[in-house]
Amino acid sequence: MKRRKFIQNATLTGAGVAVGAHVISCTTEKKEKTKIAVVPEFPKVIATWNVPNATETAWKVLEKGGSSLDAIEQGCRIEEADERNQSVGKGGRPDRDGNVTLDACIMDKNGNYGAVVCMQHIKHPISVARKVMEDTPHVLLAGKGAEKFAIESGFQPEDLLTEASRKEWEKWRETSNYAPVINIENHDTIGMLAIDKNGDIAGGCTTSGLAYKMAGRVGDSPIVGSGLFIDNEIGGATATGMGEEVLKTVGSFLIVELMRQGRSPQEACEEGIKRIVSKGNFDNFQVAYVAMNKSGETGSYSIHSGFSATINHNGINNNKESMSFNK
Ligand code: SD4
Predict the structure, then answer these.
(1) Is 309 left (phi over 0), alpha (psi -120 to 50) or beta?
(2) Which of 70, 141, 183, 239 stands 20 to 30 A from 115 (CA)?
(3) pTM of the predicted model as reported, rounded to 2 decimal places
(4) Are residues 31 and 2 both part of a single domain?
């Protein structure tokens, strides 16, 4: 009885029958296709780094039956508003000219995508990215155009350079030595994936990019397929770390495609990292991925130790260090 109910539930939630990343079919002796049930693990949210407030906020949206898209936007906004997080939103470290320029993107269950790159003065790029996705005929707005669109859409311009980040930048200018630091701190770029009660997946990624980057530099985070990719048939992936390396391997798209071919989220993240390290010198930079499949299974992996992902399932935050290539 219990078993029948369990299978029924699995089917009703739309998780169907999953082993690893895939709904599989078994052929019986009569050559009929039979489905095997695995407990769906959703709703659930996973984010890069130790961001319990962000994942808890996203979870609260999911728990009430809200969409994964709303959960992503609300969750990302927490870090964007947190001035102590110097890699995202207000308080982010500036480029080498002292300007805080923000990148963000969002993807929904239908594969719609919106992004802003190199945008100044607006502290919630994730929400502007969503507006680009929903209210414009385009998918990506850059620089002054993105800022103009944001202001016209009702966002308030403000100075994003905080005292703490300005002081650090002034200190940096004494040497002007550009050398991004691995795992620069606990809080970092936030890449977030969520699966809601309907089993629909959305994702977002928001960052101030690498500290003291050249003016105009854009990394992986707002670029579809690199910093983030969602295919609601399969799952999603998002990245943090040295954007140049993620861009060159189109990391998040790669991971989703690997899941499509049958890899678990964990295996797919590991392969994504291997593509980068197989190219040679990876001593001086970090890259990390997190991924989620249609049954809510998650994975995470990084080049170097020190990266952690935060998962919220059933309202409980769990932050633990991910496995890494270079232990
Ligand atoms: C970038 N991937 O702009 C971002 C930065 C980042 O941890 O994730 N830092 O390249």
Answers:
(1) beta
(2) 183
(3) 0.88
(4) yes
**Do 279 and 195 share a structural domain?**
yes
Q: Among the atoms of ligand 1, which is closest to the Cα of residue 217?
A: 3
For residue 207 and ligand 1, the question of a CB distance below 6 A is answered with yes
Q: Which residues of 296-317 are buried (b: 16+ CB within 10 A; e: fewer)?
A: bbbbbbbbbbebbbbbbbeeeb
Domain residue limits at 88? 44-326
Q: Are residues 102 and 19 in the same domain?
A: no
Domain count, the chain: 2
Q: Which residues are catalytic?
A: 189
Ligand 1, atom 7, residue with closest C-alpha: 241
We report the CATH number of the domain holding residue 229 as 3.60.20.30
Tell me the per-residue pLDDT of 155-203, one tens digit each, with 9 for 90 and over.
999 999 999 999 999 999 999 988 887 776 545 789 999 999 999 999 9
